[in-house]
């Protein structure tokens, strides 16, 4: 099998190929190392490729495969978002303030992956501290979407499209065959939106399903780890390996992780799917509406029943999210003070050192959110902003709880529009924040949500549909996600222009 | 500092309402109002949210985990033992135990605060209102407890090791503290001191804090305001981190005096934090309200609300040790001790245990609590104090002292001889009965021997005999002479009796 053929495999196909000894883990890893070396200059998906590390892991995988001791992910090369602490490998959250920070510890989620035999190809780009929806806030520069849109003429435009964010490195690398799959994180949509914009599958599991230990925190009550993969089945396999109970994270649940892959291919007969009227927002493009209707039809055809539901507090979710998330971030990011690790820009006294360090170390969007968060927690504003936002959050959760009496999962679009070009929204924070309009509710309620590619926009770029599930019912999302995938087909990048 | 402290005096506190504690000013009498926030380090092997050791005196930064140093992605996990200690303390303070409490973040920047926030409890503390009883000048009064909450200690900044840089030691960073907030129920320095003393005693009985003020394991923020008796509460100043009971008294007095002078000179008190300087005997401003931090408290999203069941509390309650008030009452009731003596004995659990161990060695007929208490308090504690030893280091064991007190009780030796035996025990050790036997220190009750001595003294002092017959109060001189003649071993009562008979008085 040629190197290009190897990198085009799904995670499932690669797993099965390794087990059948059609190729070795070293061959597979080398193919990806080459793809990264050739293509990363064009896409900037990786901020730190680790080819030697990958080959060393692959050699050990081959030994275990030969010895019949293969783990669930034995020899499968993955990309790791730079928010995950990786022992001995630079971890920066793509912020200057962390400098060359190299953890002495491994995040629980990545440790689970290595324990399952996975191979790390490198650290993936993301928006600085996961704050952004276009991967334009990384201190390592923009990630470029491997998809290109069609100009009016019908020819492919040279516009550099964004891969979504904050897990833009993850989505781009998966779409560009620069890894089999990738880890990502999602605080307001950072897994699902980039997946939608790159034709990949991304799932944010229920809050508490994956340990947050060792993942650089953005907003602790919203952050969750999850995978971005080429197929629904691949995402199921990867999430199973990432998730685990963890006594080091008080918010992580102590319940066993089900076999998600077993859900793939199960019938949708009797599944009740909700369609919330509040997600039909003003200004949403007609093609998104058409896509949504297609999704409804596919699920119906697969045996599900469709139900109109109401989630009345949806419109308050985005404003409330942009209070809660910055509030938590303003406190979580206080530790980056130049005292113990990372960047330090000295001043005349400690206060000036703080000011210099944080002014130089944080980018514009991170500074904006720290300021917003500091403001909404301040004496005299706390009740009007933070407390009220928490009340909204309870109402949103309550909306969903009521919906679960009628339906088993909910179908919505993932994003209001397809991938846009770099610079198109970066000057207008509010336009950028609207990218999360369909995804933040899920984080606010702590629910699982999956984005599955469902079609192409009029510009020929991918669009995704989102399925929202009950707490810890990821299984249903994989089952219904597979039905959409079966109906819509897969969406590989048509032209490999970057390498 | 806790901003939720309610400045409401306890209306039903009769002792506080009476006013033996007024301070004379130029414009009349003033009343001082005191509330205390005591920070007590929780006795536990590891920190509040990490597994690092809490041992004192280790090399700088040797007890620091990834969590304590606030490395990226690190998360706190509550230490169950610290929770149990806080609940035990709440029970010891007769306080409401809250089955649900919440940890909040108190945000501020300082190099010895690695997270950039302290995890504390703001609106929903683990322990609510309670009360303790204190004794001041023989009168007992209640002091209300407003709340107790758990929080992290900060690290330590060291400024004197380098001309340009400060150093930070994070060994203390994350160590569990209990902040115990009183109501503003105290009206004098003495009451404030008695409160902290009593609180410390309770904590030490419970084993929830070692109360070591020298190591900073117990320290107090003292809130002081003054007012004309009956007037509304005045503006308070908070004197931070006072680390001895003596200084608490001094700080209250100088701060009250300072505030009175300002008001009488037509000024007004600024609400501020102040520091007490024991060398200069003054308090001085740290920062004013205008510069006060906005701590931006909010619930810590890394931690779930702390919830436990009533059975958890009941289980801890069932295993609580006898507390000082109960022990004192028992000593008075069962052993006939005075309130004062019982109070002295129960002030330290080790002392009370020693006393009870002394009593337990005594046989039923000789178990005289008062005598035992006298010996423990006056002889043993007196001697220990003189040599700056505590009871744990006493050269005389409870068994030895008990045996000695037993020898007095069954009239084997007199109290006077017993003091000699005590000296021998202190210096050389040994078994009191053996010492008395081998050194011939037994009390002489043999009337023949005493009569012989009496006869000799009478014969040798005809002039004194004449005097004593005229003036019987002179008898004491004869008693003394006879006892001296017998080497101190004659029982005084017997000597008296025989002398009276022989002298015919």
CATH superfamily of the domain at 3-270 and 469-488 in chain A: Amidase signature (AS) domain
| CATH arch. level architecture of the domain at 3-270 and 469-488 in chain A | Alpha-Beta Complex
What percentage of amino acids of chain B are in beta strands? Answer: 15-25%
Beginning-to-end CA distance, first to last residue of chain B: 75 Å
- Quote the CATH topology of the domain at 3-270 and 469-488 in chain A: Amidase signature (AS) enzymes
Largest sheet of chain B: 9 strands, mixed
Number of DSSP-assigned strands of chain B: 16
What percentage of residues of chain A falls in helices of 4 or more residues?
Answer: 25-40%
Number of strands of chain A: 11
Please characterize this protein's 3D structure:
The complex is a heterodimer of chains A (499) and B (505). Chain A has a domain at 3-270 and 469-488: Amidase signature (AS) enzymes (Alpha-Beta Complex), CATH 3.90.1300. Helices cover 38% and strands 12% of the residues of chain A. Chain A contains 16 helices and 11 strands. In chain A, strands 1-3-2-4-6-5-10-11-9-7-8 form an 11-stranded mixed sheet, with helices on both faces. In chain A, helix 3 runs antiparallel to helix 4, helix 10 (314-332) packs across helix 12 and helix 10 (314-332) crosses helix 13 (383-403). By secondary structure, chain B is an alpha+beta fold. In chain B, the strands form 4 sheets. In chain B, strands 1, 2, 6, 7, 10, 11, 12, 13 and 14 form a 9-stranded mixed sheet that branches. The longest helix of chain B has 20 residues, at 245-264. The relative contact order of chain B is 0.10. Chain A binds chain B through residues 84-85, 91, 93, 98, 101, 103-105, 107, 212-217, 219-221, 247-251, 327-328, 330-331, 333-335, 337, 339-341, 350-351, 354, 374, 377-379, 382, 386, and chain B through 66, 69-78, 105, 107, 109, 111, 114-117, 166, 168, 294, 296-298, 301-304.
């Amino acid at each position: 099998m040629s190197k290009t053929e190897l990198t085009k495999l799904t995670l499932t196909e690669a797993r099965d190929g390794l087990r059948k000894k059609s190729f070795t883990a070293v061959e597979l890893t080398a193919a990806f190392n080459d793809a990264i070396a050739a293509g990363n200059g064009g896409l900037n998906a990786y901020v730190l490729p680790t080819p030697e590390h990958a080959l060393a892991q692959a050699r050990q995988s081959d030994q275990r495969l030969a010895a019949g001791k293969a783990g669930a992910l034995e020899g499968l090369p993955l990309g790791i978002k730079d928010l995950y602490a990786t022992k001995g490998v630079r971890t920066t959250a793509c912020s200057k303030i962390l400098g060359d920070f190299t953890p002495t510890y491994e995040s629980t989620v990545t440790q689970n992956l290595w324990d399952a035999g996975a191979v790390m190809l490198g650290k993936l780009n993301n928006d600085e501290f996961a704050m952004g929806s276009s991967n334009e806030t990384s201190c390592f520069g923009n990630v470029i979407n491997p998809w290109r849109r069609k100009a009016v003429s019908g020819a492919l435009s040279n516009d550099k499209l964004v891969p979504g964010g904050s897990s833009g490195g993850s989505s781009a690398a998966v779409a560009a065959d620069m890894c089999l799959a990738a880890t990502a994180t999602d605080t307001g949509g950072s897994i699902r939106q980039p997946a939608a914009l790159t034709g990949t599958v991304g799932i944010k599991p229920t809050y508490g399903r994956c340990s947050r230990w060792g993942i650089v925190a953005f907003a602790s009550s919203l952050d969750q780890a999850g995978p971005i993969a080429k197929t629904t089945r691949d995402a199921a396999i990867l999430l199973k390996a990432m998730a685990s109970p963890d006594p080091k994270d008080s918010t992580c649940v102590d319940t066993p992780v089900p076999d998600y892959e077993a859900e793939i291919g199960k019938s949708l007969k009797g599944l009740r799917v909700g369609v919330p009227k509040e997600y039909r927002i003003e200004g949403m493009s007609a093609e998104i509406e058409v896509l949504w209707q297609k999704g409804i039809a596919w699920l119906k055809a697969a045996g599900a029943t469709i139900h109109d539901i109401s989630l009345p507090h949806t419109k308050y979710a985005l404003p409330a999210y942009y209070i809660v998330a910055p509030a938590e971030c303003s406190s979580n990011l206080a530790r980056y003070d130049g005292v113990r690790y990372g960047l330090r820009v000295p001043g005349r006294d400690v206060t000036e050192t703080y000011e210099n360090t944080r002014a130089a170390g944080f980018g514009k969007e991170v500074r904006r959110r720290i300021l917003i968060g500091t403001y909404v927690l301040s004496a005299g504003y706390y009740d009007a902003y933070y407390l009220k936002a928490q009340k909204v959050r309870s109402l949103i959760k309550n909306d969903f709880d009521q919906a679960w009496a009628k339906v088993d999962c909910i179908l919505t679009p993932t994003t209001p529009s397809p991938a846009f070009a770099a610079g198109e929204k970066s000057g207008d924070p509010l336009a950028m924040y609207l990218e999360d309009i369909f995804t933040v509710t899920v984080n606010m309620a702590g629910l699982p949500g999956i984005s599955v590619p469902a079609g192409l926009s009029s510009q020929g770029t991918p669009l995704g549909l989102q399925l929202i599930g009950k707490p810890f019912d990821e299984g249903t999302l994989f089952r219904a996600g597979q039905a959409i995938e079966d109906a819509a087909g897969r969406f590989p990048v048509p032209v490999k222009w970057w390498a | 500092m806790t901003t939720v402290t309610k400045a409401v005096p306890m209306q039903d506190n009769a002792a506080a309402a009476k006013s033996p504690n007024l301070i004379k000013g130029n414009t009349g009498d003033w009343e001082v109002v005191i509330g205390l926030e005591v920070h007590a380090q929780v006795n536990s092997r590891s920190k509040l949210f990490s597994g690092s050791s809490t041992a004192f005196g280790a090399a700088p930064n040797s007890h620091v985990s990834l969590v304590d140093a606030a490395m990226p992605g690190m998360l706190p996990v509550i230490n169950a033992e610290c929770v149990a200690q806080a609940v035990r303390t709440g029970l010891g303070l007769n306080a409401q135990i809250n089955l649900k409490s919440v940890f909040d973040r108190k945000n501020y920047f300082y190099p010895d605060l690695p997270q950039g926030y302290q995890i504390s409890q703001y609106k929903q503390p683990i322990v609510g209102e309670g009360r303790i009883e204190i004794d001041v000048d023989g009168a007992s009064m209640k002091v209300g407890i407003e709340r107790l909450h758990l929080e992290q200690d900060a690290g330590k900044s060291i400024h004197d090791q380098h001309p340009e840089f400060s150093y930070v030691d994070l060994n203390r960073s994350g160590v569990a503290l209990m902040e115990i907030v009183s109501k503003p129920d105290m009206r004098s320095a003495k009451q404030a001191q008695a409160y902290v003393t009593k609180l410390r005693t309770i904590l030490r009985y419970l084993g929830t804090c070692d109360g070591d003020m020298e190591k900073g394991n117990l320290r107090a923020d003292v809130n002081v305001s003054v007012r004309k008796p009956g007037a509304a509460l005045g503006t308070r100043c908070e004197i931070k981190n006072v680390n001895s009971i003596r200084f608490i008294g001094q700080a209250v007095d100088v701060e009250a005096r300072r505030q009175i002078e300002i008001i009488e000179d037509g000024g007004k008190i600024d609400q501020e934090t102040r520091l007490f300087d024991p060398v200069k005997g003054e308090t001085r401003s740290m920062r004013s309200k205008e510069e006060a931090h906005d701590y931006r408290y909010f619930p810590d999203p890394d931690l779930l609300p702390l919830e436990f069941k009533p059975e958890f509390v009941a289980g801890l309650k069932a295993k609580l040790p006898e507390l000082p008030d109960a022990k004192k009452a028992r000593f008075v009731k069962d052993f006939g001790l005075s309130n004062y003596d019982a109070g002295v004995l129960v002030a330290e659990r080790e002392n009370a245990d020693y006393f009870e161990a002394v009593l337990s060695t005594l046989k039923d007929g000789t178990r005289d609590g008062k005598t035992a208490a006298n010996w423990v308090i006056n002889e043993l504690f007196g001697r220990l104090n003189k040599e700056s030893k505590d009871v744990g280091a006493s050269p005389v064991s409870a068994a030895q002292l008990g045996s000695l007190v037993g020898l007095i009780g069954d009239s084997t030796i007199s109290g006077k001889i017993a003091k000699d035996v005590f000296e021998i025990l202190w210096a050389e050790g040994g078994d009191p009965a053996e010492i008395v036997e081998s050194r011939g220190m037994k009390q002489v009750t043999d009337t023949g021997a005493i009569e012989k001595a009496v006869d000799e003294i009478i014969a040798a002092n005809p002039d004194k005999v004449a005097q004593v017959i005229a003036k019987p109060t002179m008898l004491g001189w004869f008693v003394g002479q006879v006892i001296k003649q017998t080497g101190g071993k004659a029982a005084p009562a017997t000597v008296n009796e025989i002398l009276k008979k022989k002298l015919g008085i």
